[in-house]
Amino acid sequence: MFLVRALAALLILGVIARPTSAEGLPEVRSRAVVVLDAETGAEIFGKDADDVRPIASTTKIFVAMVVRKRGIDLDGWTEIKRADAKHARGGARTRLDVGEKFRNHDLLRAMLISSDNRAPTALARAVGLDPDGLVTAMNKLAKQLHLKRTKFTDPSGLRGNVSTAREMAIALRASLDDRVLRDVMGDEFEMIYSKDRYSKIGYGTTNLPLVSKKYDVVGGKTGYTKSAGYCFITAARFEGREVLLSFLGAPGKTTRFADFNRVAEWLAQGAPGSKITTKRPSRVRPKLDVQIRGRVAGPLVEP
Description:
Layout: H1 2-13, E1 32-37, E2 43-47, E3 53-54, H2 60-69, E4 77-79, H3 82-87, E5 101-103, H4 104-114, H5 119-126, H6 131-144, E6 162-163, H7 165-176, H8 179-185, E7 189-193, E8 200-204, H9 208-212, E9 216-225, E10 229-238, E11 241-250, H10 255-268
Antiparallel strand pairs: 1-2, 1-11, 3-6, 4-5, 7-8, 9-10, 10-11
Helix pairs in contact: 2-5, 2-6, 2-7, 4-5
């Protein structure tokens, strides 16, 4: 299955139709898109970047940040309960069986690499939070990150949860500041085992650009529900500069990755026609804020 996904990624990302408009900007089909400079928060490219939209399983980066901030024991074991199965109903097929215990680090992998919907509430329980407490903590974290349009009502993103492309890009940067989460989201494949070794589960990433290796992708998260459409948030490096890319509401499963590829090609060319100014990079990494846009500390391609 992982090999099939990898081959599909290469095929999908190797074909680009009309990558830019007449103005030289990327043509994207996702409903809301933003590309931010990770250092300054400046908007390099945007399309309805501040529209409030459902965010599906990209929600799970907030779950990961909450449990990490609460000091989750990565080597501890957590049992999958029937309550976890209840909250995962309506989502994609899970591979975490009720009654089995898994390391918390592996539950993070299951949740972020392959979006297993039983992992969020199990991880929350490992840090003393019930599902309602997890949602409350996620909303509190959104406020701490100054994300005014990000609201949570559900632990996994299957029912509710909204944000904007810009705010999800900012949240992604916050999650990537955590080395553990950065490593997990940058992982292509992991095999995890239950404590009794009965379950052996291979998780392959849903981040196809990470698999294809056409560009230097750092890591990110995908999501899908009928109301949200296909979503994709990720970070990538271009000429040593890290950028945050957020695609919400793509009409097709592969469209979000085709959009990424069109934008990535444009960035690799130096982002011609972008609205940003070009100045030398700052030595101090500024706080990222939703109000920062249209300014950047340095060119995408050094002269």
